[in-house]
Write a structure and sequence with these properties.
about 40% helix, single chain, 7 strands, globular
């Protein structure tokens, strides 16, 4: 009888240890260490996306854990070397979409993480390839009454810092502005309305897509696809005219790409 009880206890411990597997991911938005210099004092878009993704990670029933942005900033501010290294890595990724694997290995090790999620978001126009923040574009458009077709482009990459490889990546692009290409805010209330639509885009599109696809990378058999019809928005300060992003630009033919679909956890 005692042997049977011991076997049951050992079996239970083995099951609980398997179920308790959690992957720690350090989420680093490119604007993490930038001061909020925009006129409105709003969070930068990459930070908004990062916060929602972190929330979804930490709500994944223990599958993925990620430190909050406040905790990440606090730790970085405690070490000038680590802060400067992180700032350099994020600027490089934001400007060129290139990844410094060696530096990321050191940064992730400081947070006891084996994976890093890099997020960069900026706005460009058809007239100019210069990357700007969405709030800078909003200020310029409002002040000079400029109407260009603006697009909000976001690049997100998941790095395995142990093996120095890209586990998953994607590019998101959506039109911002009304149907006549106007994108302006004459007062704070109108600007805050734009912020609300950005947060809606972040929570319902970016965060869900990213978190679900990354969970699928770590736990391929833990999700199943569901059919979901997505309708385009008609007008408003932000138009979600492309909610399903394209596949990663770089992927080997032998690699199984799970796609950017919607899943049920």
């Amino acid at each position: 009888m005692r042997i049977l009880v011991k076997l049951i206890i050992i079996f239970s411990l083995l099951i609980s240890s398997v179920q308790a597997v959690t992957f720690d991911v350090l989420v680093l938005p490119s604007d993490l260490l930038n001061s909020k210099e925009n006129y409105y004092g709003f969070d930068e878009v990459s930070e908004i996306f990062a916060s929602d993704i972190i929330h979804d990670f930490n709500s994944s029933n223990g599958k993925i854990s990620a430190p909050g942005l406040y905790d990440v900033k606090t730790k970085l501010n405690q070490s000038n070397n680590l802060k400067n290294l992180t700032s350099t890595v994020l600027q490089k990724f934001n400007n060129t979409n290139s990844v410094d694997y060696k530096a990321l290995k050191e940064i992730s090790s400081s947070f006891s993480c084996n994976s890093v999620l890099l997020i960069s978001s900026s706005v460009i126009t058809n007239k100019n390839s210069l990357k700007r923040s969405i709030w800078e574009i909003l200020e310029i458009s409002t002040a000079f009454n400029i109407s260009y077709p603006y697009r909000l482009d976001t690049s997100i990459v998941l790095i395995d810092t142990v093996n120095d490889i890209v586990m998953w990546s994607n590019h998101y692009s959506t039109k911002i502005g009304a149907n006549d290409n106007s994108f302006e805010a004459k007062n704070y209330a109108q600007a805050n309305e734009v912020l609300g639509k950005i947060r809606l885009y972040s929570k319902n599109i970016i965060a869900k897509s990213v978190s679900q696809n990354i969970i699928l990378r770590f736990f391929p058999k833990s999700v199943r696809t569901i059919n979901k019809e997505i309708n385009n928005s008609d007008g408003g300060a932000l138009k979600f005219d492309k909610t399903i992003p394209r596949s990663p630009q770089e992927s080997s033919q032998d690699e199984q790409f799970f796609g950017d679909m919607l899943y049920e956890i």
